[in-house]
User: Which sequence fits this backbone?
């Protein structure tokens, strides 16, 4: 009888432990799912808010102004780019640190009219943003540059106009002198301690991710300095698609004003530009398009009465 009672008590306790463990497991599982769902919602919301902040972005580059935004938690902003489609797509996603771990990324917010240049991701709580128009020869788009306050960029011996532009921004992480020891050194005249080499007269930037050509465009030069090669080449491909569409519109406008008795005299040049863009592959081909764009712009400026832009 004593043994039998002992077995009954042991079984009762065992049953209680199993049921209790199951309840605790379900509770932990439910809370974890709830936290993960909330984190996914928060990161998606953050990505969307960043996109809204950049649309439209007018930072007043010429007046030496920049803008910044801060996030409540340590955040990684991922810059993704898709080439497919009429204009490709700009994708933004965010991952925030929670319990010393980065949240999973499974939601991208997409835009067809934004061109963001940065590393594949930028990390921190405070981020700086400025923009510069890309003209080739007419305005194609505003290029947006995002950097983290955790990274300092030191521009060493830049051309005077670049030095003045950077100083006019008054952006705390872009420096031309008194650079801290762990700065990212952007050198314009070579050197042994350079993270980024800018060959300004030759029109290309050299860094660990590869060589990127900017063909004399300052806006693309900044893009190459702040971007990884994959991001730069993908965004440039998207910009060429937009350039082609705009060239088609100006070609139609040229025909329209010609029928109205005002000949712009660049219709065939625009057709040639469109054909050249068709064979664009990467930034190495940029000079071919740049040369045609310069000729078109020269003709457009000479014909003051029938300008297309």
Assistant:
């Amino acid at each position: 009888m004593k043994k039998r009672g002992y077995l009954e008590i042991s079984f009762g306790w065992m049953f209680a432990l199993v049921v209790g463990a199951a309840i605790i497991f379900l509770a932990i599982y439910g809370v974890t799912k709830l936290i993960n769902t909330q984190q996914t919602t928060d990161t998606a919301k953050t990505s969307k808010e960043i996109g809204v902040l950049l649309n439209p972005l007018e930072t007043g580059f010429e007046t030496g102004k920049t803008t910044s935004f801060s996030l409540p938690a340590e955040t990684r902003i991922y810059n993704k780019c898709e080439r497919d489609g009429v204009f490709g797509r700009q994708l933004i996603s965010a991952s925030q640190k929670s319990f010393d771990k980065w949240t999973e990324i499974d939601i991208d917010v997409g835009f067809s009219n934004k061109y963001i240049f940065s590393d594949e991701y930028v990390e921190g709580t405070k981020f700086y943003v400025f923009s510069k128009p890309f003209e080739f020869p007419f305005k194609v788009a505003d290029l947006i540059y995002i950097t983290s306050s955790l990274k300092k960029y030191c521009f060493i011996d830049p051309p005077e106009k670049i030095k003045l532009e950077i100083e006019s921004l008054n952006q705390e992480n872009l420096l031309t002198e008194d650079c801290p020891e762990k700065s990212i050194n952007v050198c314009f005249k070579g050197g042994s301690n350079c993270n980024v080499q800018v060959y300004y007269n030759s029109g290309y930037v050299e860094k660990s991710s590869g060589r990127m050509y900017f063909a004399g465009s300052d806006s693309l030069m900044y893009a190459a300095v702040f971007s990884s090669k994959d991001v730069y080449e993908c965004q440039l491909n998207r910009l060429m698609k937009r350039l082609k569409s705009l060239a088609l519109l100006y070609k139609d406008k040229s025909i329209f004003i010609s029928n109205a008795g005002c000949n712009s005299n660049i219709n065939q040049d625009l057709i040639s530009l469109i054909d050249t863009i068709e064979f664009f592959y990467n930034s190495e081909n940029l000079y071919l398009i740049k040369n045609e764009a310069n000729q078109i712009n020269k003709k457009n400026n000479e014909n003051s009465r029938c300008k297309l832009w």
Residues 33-149 form one domain.
